[in-house]
Amino acid sequence: MNWIRRIIEKKLFIFITLGLISFVVLSLKFFSIPWVYIFLSLSVYFYLIYRHIHWAKAKVILVNICVFFALMALVEFLTYYLTETISQSHKEVEIKDVSGNQPFVISDRNLGHLPSPSTVFKHSEYYTDGTQNSVNYSINENSLRRSIPEDRNDRYINSVLFFGCSYTFGEMVEDNETLPWQFAELDDYRRNVYNFGFEGWGPHHMLASLQDDRVEKIVSEEPNLIVFQGIFDHLNRVTNDHAWTVNGPKYVLKGEDLVRSGNFIINSKLLRQLNKSAIYSLIMNSKYVQPSFKEKARLFTEIIETSRAIFLSKYDSARFIVVMWPDSTYSDAEYKLVLDLLMSKGIEVVEVTNILTDIKNSPELYSVKNNGHPNPLAFNKIASFLLQQE
Fold first, then answer.
1. Which pLDDT tens digit goes with each residue over 175-185?
2. How many other C-beta atoms lie within 10 A of the C-beta of residue 274?
3. What one-character-per-residue DSSP string does 162-231 give?
4. Residue 73: in which H helix or E strand, if any?
5. What is the CATH number of domain 91-388?
6. Backbone torsion region of residue 73, taken as left when φ is above 0, otherwise alpha when ψ lies between -120 and 50, otherwise beta
7. Measured between alpha carbons, how far is 139 from 163 in angstroms, rounded to an integer?
8. Torsion sign across C-alpha atoms 211, 214, 219, 224
9. What is the pLDDT of residue 154?
């Protein structure tokens, strides 16, 4: 009976549709390359529809849709593996609270994300060559990594503030191996030292921390030295040119004025899921969508200059320094452009290549094996240099 068959087919269609929706949700939540599976499931879904209709024109359209989604799955797969960075392709990473279940990263309305306060985390990395490495991160009550021994009760008059990203935070080095800690130690703990760096941050986080009075609320002594560690990837971060830097503070240039424009996309659940697509990320990070290198460099410079101006308006005797790391993926002309822009603003710039003079020829001497971030030796030399320059 045709009417019974139609009811069964209708219920089967509803069941398959609900199954597809469930599969999409589960893929986005659990799979590392979810859009490959989503595109394949859509291809199969439209093929099943194709099998149950008899209108010739509709069949042609459905065949093309099936082929389209199958090709999209292939392109997504190839894009993912061709664009996956070497640094992430040969390791597995685990960061856990050593005494509880606190997440390493928590959300923050102003800065986008922070480390969980008053917690110690163990960061472990497992490499495909069979080796592994692990360190502990001690985070204090202000969501800052500790930069002096906890048992010291010195009454400080002055302080030193370090800002930056994972280079300042100290990825894959112990607490006492970071740049801020080694600086404090070499300085005989004469001043309190603060580590305002964190994973994925840039100069925009430094400026946002100043404008929100976060720095003023945490720092109780008069700073006489402020150090920002800059890397060239910060130029991408200030324009949100990474899927993993969403939620950070957003600054734009309107003419000659630098303006805070809220945060990069925070609440769009759809865009968060689209960011899991290698194709979408590649398009959004392409030169056709992102600002030019010169535009990024100008924004990067203006953010640092505005930060410096705020610092000096509050602490007029403080010295503000940018420690700039080299990056072999950028040309000498691009490197020079950034340095020239910074120095044209009167910003004091220290080039890491003038401290680690053999870093270009032997970068492995100054990086954590299998990780790529600066190692304790690099930080020790930079800390010594900064103290010698005072």
1. 999 999 999 99
2. 16
3. EEESHHHHTTTS-GGGSHHHHHHHHTTT-SEEEEEE-TT--HHHHHHHHHTTHHHHH--SEEEEEEEEE-
4. helix 56-83
5. 3.40.50.1110
6. alpha
7. 15
8. negative
9. 76
The Cα–Cα gap between 233 and 336 comes to 15
Distances (CA, A) of 278 to 42, 267, 282: 17, 21, 6
Tell me the C-alpha to C-alpha distance, in Å, between residue 337 and each of 270, 281, 294, 310, 331.
37, 27, 8, 24, 10
Segments making up each domain of the chain, as ranges: 2-83, 91-388
Write out the H or E segment, with its range, that includes residue 323: strand 319-324
State how far the Cα of 302 lies from the Cα of 338, in Å rounded to an integer: 11
Q: Which two tokens stand for residue 390?
A: 């005072």
Q: In terms of pTM, does the model score above 0.90? A: no
Q: Given CA atoms 132, 136, 142, 146 in this order, what sign does their dihedral have?
A: negative
**Helices 179-186, 376-388: crossing angle, 10 deg rounding:** 50
Q: How far apart are CA 193 and CA 184, in angstroms?
A: 6
Residue indicated by tokens 């030193």? 160
The rounded distance, in Å, linking the Cα atoms of 40 and 30 is 16
Give tens-digit pLDDT for 365-383. Answer: 999 999 999 999 999 999 9
30 pLDDT above the threshold of 90: no
How much of the chain is helix, strand and coil, in % rounded to 5? 45, 20, 35
Query: What are the two backbone dihedrals, phi and then psi, of residue 182, each rounded to the nearest 5 degrees?
Result: -65, -35
In sequence order, the 6+-apart residues with CB closer than 8 A to the CB of 114 are 105, 106, 107, 108, 143, 198
Dihedral sign computed on CA atoms, order 32, 38, 43, 48 = positive
CA atoms within 13 Å, Cβ hemisphere of 355: 22
Pair 384, 350: CB distance under 8 Å:
no
Question: Which string of DSSP letters, residue by residue, matches 268-312?
Answer: -HHHHHHTT-HHHHHHHTSTTTSPPHHHHHHHHHHHHHHHHHHHH
CA-to-CA distance for 356 and 365, rounded, in angstroms?
Answer: 10
